[in-house]
Design brief:
Layout lengths: L2 E12 L2 E12 L3 E5 L6 H8 L7 E6 L14 E5 L10 H11 L5 H10 L13 H14 L4 E5 L7 H17 L3 E6 L2 H4 L5 E6 L2 E7 H5 L2 E7 H8 L4 E7 L2 E7 L4 H9 L3 E4 L2 H12 L6 H5 L2
Parallel strand pairs: 3-7, 3-8, 5-6, 6-7
Antiparallel strand pairs: 1-2, 1-4, 8-9, 10-12, 10-13, 11-12
Amino acid sequence: MEAAVEVRDLTRRYGDTLALDRVSLSLERDVIHGLLGRNGAGKTTLMSLMTAQDWPSTGDVEVLGQRPHENEKVLPRICFVREDQRYIDDARAAHAFRAAARAFPRWDQAVADRLMADFRVPERTRIKKMSKGQRSAVGVIIGIASRAEVTFFDEPYMGLDAVARQLFYDRLLEDYAEHPRTIVLSSHLIDEIAHLVENVVVIDGGRILVDEPAEALRGRAVTLVGRAEAVEEIVGSREVLHREALGRMVRTTVLGALDDAERHRVDELDVDLVPVSLQQLVVRLTSREAGGGDAQELEEKS
């Protein structure tokens, strides 16, 4: 595995606030990574450090084998698109794209022009006068058309409606298939991007909880629904992420896949198996770390 980004023992403090707590992480090259977690978990801070937008309190960052901070050999190979992306006063979309073309050696103007039409971005309207959705579209167009070797999207598509977000996902996948690069997507809309991400990183309280392939993660948990005594037999010594009582029935989410013998026993006991979505798993894992909280930010935005 060749890493595009390496983070070692990274800490970031803002006064008395510990935003990142000794984070170590390796992001494989030419993979779409999902960086998931609730508001304030440390996602934006981590991306800001990996893209040299901020300096760590302690620890090291390497991008494409080099430290990115004040490094003119690395920075043009990194694109960071934020939800609160800022542009020069009175700039139009064309101005932003011309600036991006100078900043990113692999910029593709034909892609930018096609996406501008797809997202119906007005040519004559100044960006600061655009709707939130149009401003978001300008950001995602830059992220895709830059074709930067390492591209970070910090929820810049949150201003898009559902139809436009799906268009973004489709166009991103199309371009990624033709021009592979390392992409990091930060989002609250976990189930909406689940089909995009190949590797999942879950951060909570400034610490990494999960870093593993999406397919492996999807099989890590299962929900059992049935009579309490039957469900408890199947649960055994597994870690319980969530339990709900419904009269004599219970609904329990546990870590750990079932083997063939356990699945046979599930049938005998008339217990229902319910798949756990990526969204639900992240909610349960972050709730566990919070000491039983309900991770409302993630559930409300699902």
